[in-house]
Amino acid sequence: MGTLKLKNISKSFGNVEVLRDISLEVADGEFVIFVGPSGCGKSTLLRIIAGLEDATKGEVIIDGQMVNHLGAADRGISMVFQSYALYPHMTVEANMGLGLKQAKTPKAEIKARVTKAANMLELTPLLNRRPAELSGGQRQRVAIGRSIVREPKIFLFDEPLSNLDAALRVNTRIEIANLHNSLNSSMIYVTHDQVEAMTLADKIVVLHDGKIEQIGHPIELYNHPCNMFVAGFIGSPKMNFFDADKLDVKNAITVGVRPEHIKIDAKQGDYECEITYVEHLGSDSNLYLTHPKLGAFTVRVFGQVAYARGETLHASLLKESMHKFDEHENVITDI
Amino acid sequence: MHLDKKFSHIGRSIFIHTFLICFTILALFPMVIVIINSFKTRKGIFREPLSFPTAETFSIKGYETVITGGDFQLYFTNSFIVTSVSLFFILLFGAMASYALSEYRFKGNLFMGLFLAFGIMIPIRLGTVAILKLMVATGLVNTLTALILVYIAQGLPLCIFILTEFMKTVSDDLKNAGRIDGLSEYRILFTLVIPLIRPAMATVAVFSMIPIWNDLWFPLILASGEEVKTITLGAQNFIGQYLTNWNAVLAALSLAILPVVILYLIFSRQLIRGITSGAVK
Q1: At how many degrees (to 10) do helices B198-214 and B144-168 cross?
Q2: Is residue A87 within 8 angstroms of chain B, CB to CB?
Q3: Same-domain pairing of B6 and B74
Q4: Among A69, A107, A143, A317, which residue carries the largest CB count within 10 Å?
Q5: How far apart (Å, rounded) are the C-alpha atoms in residues A204 and A59?
Q6: pLDDT (0 to 100) of residue B279
Q7: How far is B264 from chain A (nearest CA, A)?
């Protein structure tokens, strides 16, 4: 079992309110990702769940039990840190076993659990090394191993991949996904990288300025963002926003169209635009266009294109994929 | 151009080394004089104080007097006890106070840090009279405890000042990982933080140890009894009003240098890392 319930969590540092009235539920075995720009409070929220910070107001409930008064070690959670936070003067084995040793677990069981975790993460040949003798990816695996050994109710990850290089990041991401499949325990993961969020999560929580903007399945957030912030944050490149008047759309203030929902054609289309920049990514291409009336916007095309900067192009926005927003930047769902 | 640069580099390094060598000579001169004269006869000392012992002037009479004659071993043990016990408590309390100051946000944290560091600026000897009164009132005069207590107070400010800065550099994540693994705050300090700032601890140890070992002031005032004399005070036994046994004084002082030099050699590697870390990353 590993369920988590947050009830009206608020947190202030002095006069600065970093979290405002956060309520949230995580079901057993769910992979939940907190995503948001830097400074939105997502790491603070994770620390409050872990018991490393106290909430100013509100309740943290793990498995139906209020844990506000419990220390980090007694909450049945484990945490993987961005900086790995391995104990530099201990071997990998000692690093992984320290928590159990502290809890006075019998030696044989510590050994068995460390061995099992090491096998799972292919760390067995490294057990006698010290963190300084490991590569970044290996250190991150040790950090993950350390949290597996504790057999927690809930795994917490604080931006675990941000210190790894791009190739390793993809590998470790897959490893974490596999881990979630095989352990089947609840995981809460903090990241500012929306690709990680989209690929790993069962449920994404988008945070902004200490508030939850939207909670939902990744595809749901992509298809039905509830406001302009979520619409702009999920999806890459960013959604284009236009003034509704300029597109002659009624009953809305702003209209959002994703770059992949704009059709381009060399000869015909609704808007004649100039190309200001082209990004060739191989599998797809990003075109940056400007139109005298609409302004600048981005178009994403699958495959490779032969267009170059300065050329003229016709763009048409797909009506059925438009998102309409009202004056409070909230989505209008009457379409 | 390239050659010029190289030349100026060599020139600079010659200048720096000349300066350092001069400084070393200056610093070592009195010690060397003490040591070479301790191996000379009385006549040798006064006739040619700067020359090395020759076959004619060589004598270890001073050492014989010191080792066989006086209560030298007792003085030595006293000094050793006072220094090591003081050092232990300075490091222990200093580390604990620094950890609290660097780790916890509480009201008066800044004030507390300044208050504890204030002792660096105000010499403890200014309070000698009050300390003496206090020791008389508590009946601690002529005990090693009196010296140890004073030295702990004397050593703590610098220790806390240095260690607080170093402890701030230990990553929060590491301490938090320890908390999640169920380590108590004490275990986090002793098993995670202290091993990581060992160079700083060594630096503090050396800086605190030398003034304690060399101190003459407080032993003279607080513990001048025969049983509790430290070695610096004990060496004064050989200095009389009319006649001074220079052989013995110099031999005693030479011997007193030894333990500090040995400890320094042990700590020096860590010490250099402690001084340069932070400056050179």
Answers
A1: 150
A2: yes
A3: no
A4: A143
A5: 21
A6: 41
A7: 24
Numbered residues of chain B with Cβ closer than 8 Å to any chain A Cβ: 171, 173-174, 176-183, 187, 192, 195-196
Verify that B263 and B206 share a domain, yes or no.
yes
Q: What is the CA radius of gyration of chain B?
A: 23
**Is A182 buried (19+), middle (13-18) or exposed (0-12) by CB count in 10 A?**
exposed
Round to whole Å and give the CA distance between B57 and B74: 30
User: What is the residue whose two structure tokens read 């702990």?
Assistant: B152
Q: Which domain holds residue B43?
A: 1-59
How many angstroms from the chain centroid is the CA of residue A217? 12
Q: Considering CB atoms only, which of B173, B182, B195 is closest to A73?
A: B182
Q: Which stretches of chain B drop beneath a pLDDT of 50? A: 278-281
Which residue of chain A comes nearest to B192, CA vs CA? A87
Would residue B232 count as lying in a domain? yes
Tokens 């001084």 label which residue?
Answer: B275
Distance CA A66, CA A59 (A): 7
Select from A79, A86, A110, A139 the residue whose CB has the most chain B CBs within 10 Å, as the one to mutate to test that interface. Answer: A79
Q: Are residues B48 and B145 in the same domain?
A: no
**Minimum Cα–Cα distance from A148: chain B residue:** B181
CATH number, domain with residue B111: 1.10.3720.10
Give A182-216 pLDDT, tens digit per residue: 888 899 999 988 888 999 999 999 999 999 999 99
Domain A4-230 belongs to what architecture? 3-Layer(aba) Sandwich (3.40)
Residue B47 shares a structural domain with residue B77: no
Of B174, B180, B195, nearest to A50 by CB-CB distance is B180
Q: What is the mean pLDDT of chain A?
A: 90
Name the domain boundary from B59, B78, B96: B59
Give the number of domains in chain B: 2
Are A87 and B176 a contacting pair at CB < 8 A? no
A81 to B176: CB separation less than 8 angstroms, yes or no:
yes
Verify that B100 and B190 share a domain, yes or no. Answer: yes
The reply to whether B193 falls in a domain is: yes
> Which of B59, B93, B109 marks a domain boundary?
B59
- Flag if B171 and A77 touch (Cβ within 8 Å): no
Both B218 and B106 in one domain: the answer is yes
Shortest distance between the Cα of A198 and any Cα of chain B, in A, equals 26
pTM here? 0.79
- Is B126 part of a structural domain of the chain? yes
B94 with B53, same domain: the answer is no
Interchain contact, A87 vs B171, CB within 8 Å: no
Helix or strand or coil: residue A228? helix
Chain centre to alpha carbon of residue A170:
14
What is the CATH code of the structural domain delimited by A241-325?
2.40.50.140
Percentage of chain A exceeding pLDDT 70? 99
Q: DSSP secondary-structure letter at B280?
A: B
B233: its two tokens: 């005070």
Same domain, B32 and B145: no
CB B265 within 8 A of CB B272: no
Residues of A whose CB is below 8 A from B192: 87
Question: What are the structural domain ranges in chain A?
Answer: 4-230, 241-325
Contacts of B182 in chain A (CB under 8 A): 73-74, 99, 102-103
Residue B64 located in a structural domain: no
